[in-house]
Write a structure and sequence with these properties.
CATH topology of one domain: MetI-like fold
Shape: elongated
Structural class: alpha/beta
Distance between the termini: 33 Å
Bound molecules: adenosine-5'-triphosphate
CATH class of one domain: Mainly Alpha
CATH superfamily of one domain: MetI-like
Strand order of the largest sheet: 6-7-8-3-9-10
Strand content: 5-15%
Number of strands: 10
Largest sheet: 6 strands, mixed
Number of helices: 25
CATH architecture of one domain: Orthogonal Bundle
């Protein structure tokens, strides 16, 4: 897998643990608890102002102008003899209400725009971000003045102006999170299950940004209140006579010399409420960024797997094809080539990969890390990560070429006809949805089942793949599953629509040896039941030997050797296959010998050696190997295949 696709823990992720406990943690902090209680009191007072306030906020009493606190008027009176306490209470309605409305508008609009441009990427993103940068370079108040100058003054234009200013902050956050999240495995898994784009954006990715959005909202509520108060203070916001904290402060300013106390209640109300929002926002940020992500599935060293060998499949299928050979399976991959732009040249990460798969058989793809196994599987489902693209070749599935199919057609195949099990189940499940909700994703995408029926099916499947207490565990989050159980759940998810082809990318890498054997047995059993073709990607030759009918050995984006499992492993005809076999822990090293290694590394796709790509690491290389690319002939891409076959090396 590429590093960009790995599931590195992110500081701002709201994983399931946080989703279930951040409210608890917030309530355990005295400062947050105080802020929440005070804000609730403020909101309650605002809502029930007519019941709480001793006077009507507009009730004028000119005989009692500019009085200090008294029994009748606890916070005194203003320049028209109106009760200051009542006006502060009613003022909370306007100040808090306008702040809540403006921030809500900003959150909805800004988050939607940010998600969309982050998802679309390319020039949409570039143009939108230039506009956002330009708008953000204008100071907030100047921006608000401009909008008010255009639309006129009053509470509605003020609220709109603040909403536009803050929408920019949400666009940035949502776009940033989207750029990060769309690289994550669970997004690939949702796409591979056939979910439509809006559902992926709003159903899968949006819940993962709840953390940053909640923090931002808490802080922006305070700032919105401050800006609205400032605009009212300047006479641009709420009507000067209205009960609003900013307008009250403006009124108090005029009488500062004769009655200094008048500015204190509204000034304190603004300061206090802004502080409450800010402290709450800071605490939320601490909680949501400070919690450790639960450990992902255990990684255990690979070991020998004792499994019964599968029944041999139809010998005409599954074999990787020599260049130019004909097709014939349920899935035919032919000459598949993928390039990523690097500088002025393209880096060819796959180069002419060809193989066929027949119903009921397992074809193994093996090779070192970076040899192109995952890219092959992703390309079959049209999931090549951008900016990579298929530049040649085809992927024929039941007569359709998936390599040239549009998103609409691909979505109908993904999850239903061809499903994929991803490498690391913990990364492939969204941390904020329950296992039950995720296992039924392909069903929801392809079958019109009620939620109850889909849950029944999910429970059946989880039970079928060996998850104990399946129905109860539907409501668990991924982190509550062990690596082995998560892997089983991932298999259940892939099998919900009984696909004809299963792409299993390292389905057992994250598991210890015992669980590994159980999962492989299970896959084999389900395969037999469903007559499913499996493309098994692994770097573990023990797994291939135990489970595959045929195998393709990949090196540097090409299949370098292919054939029946036993032929390839008994009499390898490419030095790379030999080297891989010698380097496997299942060979002589198990008896105490030193484990041989393959010197050097897979060459980067942008700097491939001339001739045979393996020749710099090959102990059998001769001058001819360095001259021209070697085609795949009779199942081997080695000029000396015949000699190797004869030689006892
Ligand atoms: N997004 C990307 N941008 C550029 N190159 C990429 C990208 N994704 C993969 N590659 C390159 O494609 C090549 C094949 O990668 P791939 O993930 O298919 O290898 P792999 O054989 O599956 O390895 P592993 O066993 O580690 O998953 C590698 O050289 C990798 O660097």
């Amino acid at each position: 897998m590429t590093s960009s696709q790995s599931a590195a823990p992110q500081m701002t992720d709201l994983d399931a643990t946080r989703a279930s406990t951040w409210t608890d943690q917030l309530l355990r902090r005295p400062a947050s608890l105080f802020c929440l209680a005070a804000l609730a009191l403020l909101a309650g007072t605002a809502i029930f102002a007519p019941l709480v306030a001793p006077y009507h906020p507009e009730a004028v009493d000119t005989l009692r102008r500019l009085q200090g606190p008294s029994i009748d008027h606890w916070l005194g009176t203003d320049s028209l003899g109106r009760d200051v306490l009542s006006r502060v209470i009613y003022g909370a309605r306007v100040s808090l209400g306008a702040a809540v409305v403006s921030v809500t508008l900003a959150a909805v609009a800004g988050t939607s725009i940010g998600l969309l441009i982050g998802y679309l990427g390319g020039w949409w993103d570039s143009v939108a971000m230039r506009v956002v940068d330009a708008l953000q370079s204008i100071p907030a108040l100047v921006f608000a003045f401009a909008i008010i100058a255009l639309v006129g003054k009053g509470i509605v234009p003020t609220t709109l102006a603040v909403a536009v200013i803050f929408a920019i902050a949400y666009i940035r956050i949502a776009r940033g999170v989207m750029l990060r999240e769309r690289q994550r495995r669970y997004v690939d898994a949702a796409t591979a299950a056939g979910l439509p784009t809006p559902r992926i954006i709003f159903g899968e990715i949006l819940p993962n940004m709840v953390g940053p959005l909640v923090v931002e909202t808490a802080i922006l509520l305070g700032s919105a209140q401050l800006i609205i108060a400032m605009l009212s203070f300047l006479g641009l916001g709420v009507d000067a006579d209205a009960a609003d904290w900013g307008s009250m402060l403006n009124d108090a300013r005029i009488y500062q010399g004769v009655h200094p106390f008048l500015s204190i209640p509204s000034g304190l109300a603004i300061t206090f409420s802004v502080l409450l929002f800010n402290v709450l926002g800071d605490d939320l940020r601490d909680i949501l960024t400070g919690t450790q992500r639960p450990a992902a599935g255990r990684r255990a060293p690979q070991g020998a797997v004792a499994l019964s060998a599968p029944a041999a499949a139809d010998a005409s299928c599954g074999v990787a094809k020599d260049e130019g050979s004909q097709t014939g399976g349920i899935l035919d991959v032919s000459g598949l080539t993928i390039e990523f732009p690097v500088g002025n040249n393209g880096a060819r990460v796959l180069d002419g990969v060809s193989f066929s798969l027949c119903a009921g058989e397992t074809f193994g793809l093996v090779g070192e890390s970076g040899s192109g196994k995952s890219q092959t599987a992703l390309a079959i489902l049209g999931l090549t990560p951008k900016p990579g693209m298929v530049t040649a070749g085809s992927v024929h599935f039941e007569g359709r070429n998936l390599a040239t199919a549009g998103e609409h057609d691909l979505r109908r195949v993904r999850g239903k006809e061809i499903a994929m099990i991803f490498q690391d189940p913990m990364a492939a499940f969204s941390p904020v949805h329950t296992i039950g909700d995720q296992v039924i994703v392909p069903l929801q995408a392809h079958a019109k089942l009620s939620r109850a029926a889909a849950r029944d099916r999910a429970a059946d499947l989880l039970d079928r793949v060996g998850v104990p207490n399946a129905r109860r565990r539907l409501d668990d989050y991924p982190h509550q599953f062990s690596g082995g159980m998560a892997q089983r759940a991932m298999i259940a998810m892939a099998l919900t629509c009984e696909p004809k082809v299963l792409l299993a990318d390292e389905p057992t890498t994250a598991l210890d040896v015992t669980i590994q054997a159980q999962v492989l047995d299970l896959l084999h059993e389900l395969q037999q039941e469903m007559e499913m073709a499996i493309l098994l990607i692994t770097h573990d030759l023990g797994v291939v030997a135990a489970t595959c009918d045929r195998v393709g050995v990949m090196y540097s984006g090409q299949i370098v050797e292919t054939g029946n499992m036993s032929d390839v492993f008994d009499t390898p005809r490419h030095p790379y296959t030999r080297a891989l076999m010698e380097a496997t822990p299942h060979s002589s090293s198990a008896f105490g010998g030193r484990l041989p290694t393959i010197d050097g590394r897979v060459p980067p796709p942008w700097n491939l050696p001339q001739g045979c790509r393996f020749h710099p690491r090959c102990r059998f290389a001769i001058k001819a190997c360095t001259v021209a690319p070697v085609p795949l002939m009779d199942g081997s891409r080695c000029l000396r295949a015949g000699e190797l076959l004869m030689a006892e090396v």
